[in-house]
Here is the input.
Amino acid sequence: MSGLRLQLRAPLRDRIDLGPAFGTPWAAASAAEVARREVWSPRSGPVPLGDLFTVEGAPDGTVTLTGDLQLAERVGAGLTEGSMRVDGSVGDRAGAGLRGGRLEVGGNAGHSAGEGMSGGVVIVRGNAGNRAGAAAPGSKRGMTGGELVVLGSAGDETGAAMRRGLVAIGGTTGRCTLLSSIAGTVVACGPTGPDAALWNKRGSLVCLGSVDPAATYRYACVIQPTYLRLLLRRLRDVHGLPVTAEHIDGRFRRYSGDFAETGRGEILAWSPA
Amino acid sequence: MKIRSVFIEDTFAEAFTMRSARLIVTARSARWVREAALKLTGFATSVIGCKCEAGIERVLTEAETPDGRPGVSVLFMVMAKDELPKRLVERVGQTILTCPTTACYDGLPDAPDRVKVGSSLRYFGDGFQASKVIGGQRFWRIPVMEGEFLVAETFGMVKCIGGGNFLILAEDADKALAAAEAAVDAMHGMPGIILPFPGGVVRSGSKVGSRRSKTMIASTNDAYCPTLRAVTATALPDTVNSVLEIVVNGLDAAAINASMRAGIDAACRPGVVSITAGNYGGKLGPHHFKLRDIMGGTSA
Here is the structure.
């Protein structure tokens, strides 16, 4: 088996910030070099990664992390290259600031997964917490590029303050999805919570499940946007989201808004035949 | 060298470097794909008079197109780099944007040289247009009365070869036409090539310049005109009374070689006297397609 393999030596008792470990180029780094990289423990400060994980394997641009990492924050944060896979669940801010490469979380992700990412791909096979793909605290912009795909459900304020990029949620989505977004796209395969796309400027919220557009949205028409055929086929074929032929060939009710803002955004609500 | 009694002349087709884009056009149904493609590639036989050369490369199945609808692949060719964006914006804007249900995608996404098309056409949206990035590629959504027109922001541009050709010298016009049709049928749909002339066939092959006018860059190829046999330095054997030419442009020499091989082989049928090719002595075009090499024989 090629690639680097990191196995947690002992269960984490405190939160740990894994962000510094892979935020700089790592794809060509040896196991020993990776083991020397420091991560941050709020309790004890900088800690070599090798103190927490056994690090094995040869570099080939992939790394696999195993063990209970629910207390590990910022897993894959700032990634610029390569492919990182986590077998289980991770803590908050997984893939925050991701610029390239791919992070795949086999379980759930905490809050703020893909926060402020600008490129690359984050896949969460379980559920994600609040503010997936949203802006970092104090930042005006959320995602500015890349793809964040959650095969399960996502919490509130998914895609808040997005500027560009794509967030796709396989299950239900909480309230205030695409809140205050500038642009970008959120696809919600399940029901979308209340106050969807509030204060959205130019973003697109695509709802394959139920949605109740706010009063500041105006109904425009029923349409079959060609770009959705590309987008939905990609989400189905590449990421395995529950998109059906009926969705791809289907009609969508288009609502323009939010007229509390510029009114140039849209909610596209799938309309079953 | 002979193929089924048809003499293959020891000569070569002389071809030129051009620039090409590949457009994938889709629509709701095969009917509207065809309508769009015919308009897009209309009046695009030769750069001499049309500023570009274009043709349908092949029909695409729903499984082969980006949006899962019926489509065609169209190759578009010009002589100079800076001509391609002008021609594409004109033609896509007037023939694809206007055609119901169509969308237009880049068929050369890996080409490093990019030509702006959607990013120019978007202004038709008068500020209501929007862009989306899907799979790393940017598209423009231009609102139109029917709904929305989707077009790729940029298209890949690659070097290609224009002017591969062969001439079918036959006993009469019917036999020349039948042989030309057989050749076109054999070449049609081969990857990486187009036959830009009507039905893939040219009846008016040209020579460079003119005997009478200094301003004409091309005029009739009198050496191959049967009616001029008695009044010009003819290149026609006595038994030849009609000549048709097949012109083939391709993304690379291998594609042209393969298509010429298939076309010449199909054209070698009763009533055809010989197959030759057009060239300018090898001084103008850098690409030489030797007929006997292509057909597996040996050049002198």
Observations:
- Chain A has a mean pLDDT of 96.
